[in-house]
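agent> fetching stored inputs for the beta-D-glucopyranose docking request
agent> found them:
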Amino acid sequence: MTKKDLILGIDIGGSGVKGALVDLRKGDFASERVRIPTPSPKTPESLLGAVSEIIKTFKWHGVVGCTFPGVIRAQVIETAANMGKDFIGVNLAEEIGKACSCEAWIINDADAAGCAEMRYGAGKGNKDMVLMLTVGTGIGSALFTSGKLVPNTEFGQLKMRDKAQSRTLPAEKICADSARKKGDMTWPAWASKFNKYLQYVHSLLWPNLIILGGGISAKEEKFMHLLDVDCDIVSARLQNRAGIVGAALEAKKNLL
Ligand code: BGC
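agent> prediction call returned; pasting tokens
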């Protein structure tokens, strides 16, 4: 393996910051995954502390690929629905670079997961319209056409009416995995809400394939058979490793 094929990937989430060395020839982990809880309160400083702890754990001095759950343009955080407004306007790549003396690349978490699935997983070689949805603390989306990413689509923020709460909310507040847990929903109850979301997104985009990833993808036997949408739907082959692998992949593409 050349040096360029081994990269540290870090996935910043609403509840955990996770890191692993990624072997980009295989498209999978080359080390154990390290997880630390997302610090509270969530601030750029506290998060940089967590990222730097992960980098130190691996005694890593190379390039770092890192995800963030928000819109990223030119390495600057533009939205941070589940992280807080302190993050907006922060050039996270630059901050990680300064704090950890390394070169870093930042990408939206769902975009990263989608890139990994398109390269190594369930979307490999697929040139149709492919939609990756990550379902965890929030709902993330990544849209591909002819294998190319349309970044920052944020379809988890589409507004939907929630009957139970009689109000219109971002879809992720109604049917992310965190909403399922918070509302103590049975799998069929959650699936019925998620199906409405899937059908809504489908009616806007007409994807040929939907890939489901994020925390929920580890529990596919609980819900895949309950899903109902008019296109192929599969779970992410890399499951919740996709974010870390995709972050490493994009760091290589953009920095090496
Ligand atoms: C954010 C997205 C992110 C998703 C999954 C949403 O709250 O707006 O950028 O991809 O959560 O983490």
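agent> quick read of the result: The domain at 125-236 is CATH 3.30.420.40 (Nucleotidyltransferase; domain 5).
agent> awaiting further instructions
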